[in-house]
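sanity check this:
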Amino acid sequence: MNGEPVSWGRALGQEIKFARLARGWSQHQLADEMHFKQPYISSIESGRQLASANFAEQADKVFGTPGIYTRMQKRSKYDRHPVWFVPYLELERQALAICDYSVLFVMGMLQTAEYAEAVFRSARPRENPAEIRRLVEERMQRRRLFEKDNPPSLWVILQEAALRSSVGGADVMRGQLQHLLTASESPHITIQVFPFGAGTPARGRPFDVMTRPNGTEILYQETYGRGTVDDSADVVAEARAAYDRLRANSLSPAATQVLIRHVLEEYNHAQHTGPDMDEVQLQREQRRAMPGMGQVELQRGGRRPMRRMGPRTRPFHRRHRDT
């Protein structure tokens, strides 16, 4: 196999072929035993087609296996994901708690369909539209995790850059920011923003610390085109400590909502005023439109007014109370 991982669907087909040959059967004989047509057997064994749930159940009956093919068929639904991403999907599905740190993009489970499409189109500019739609649909299905009776707790820390990077344009970002506000109202989801003014973050790359059903924790992190899982106690403890520092230096959940609303308002103003509005006038209108911004304030420094597209980026910091 040239050292490449075998997909679950292809592995199932290979095992069916090995079991058939061990019985001394032809494909036609196996088709008669399982009540399927020979071309379908051939396509499963060659990996050209994924086995159906009914086929896997019949294979378990015919070969007397205790649900082996059924389990392989269920896992084959992950075959269209990169092999290195499959362990994360399994962990995500089983986790009791997920602590996510995202730098440039909103994490997958909190993305809108439009935002996810923009991310995929940017990463895969030559991909055909049908494949992009499939990828988006699969990402949206991950939201169903929170439709369970006992969904996991999700704690997300977002770099402020993720709010201000105009992924897909202003319309897409308005929908994404509104979705974050809606998600933050869930009792199972907590969102914090690590603001520009908070200094150097404890980690520069995104990562997840996930709690498994047995109470142990595991670290998942990605590099370019690869993802790794690590359950080493020392490594997980270091990641947990970094996450705690990120959380301590982030805006509170309430202040995060204020900031998200503020950035959302910036996108709205950018649409209505265009890029040529004087910066001072824009700030004045923002303050008049958002009187509740007492928790965050703008720092202009000595910057000169510049023409630019999209919402203007300004650092935020907490206002300290006089004692």
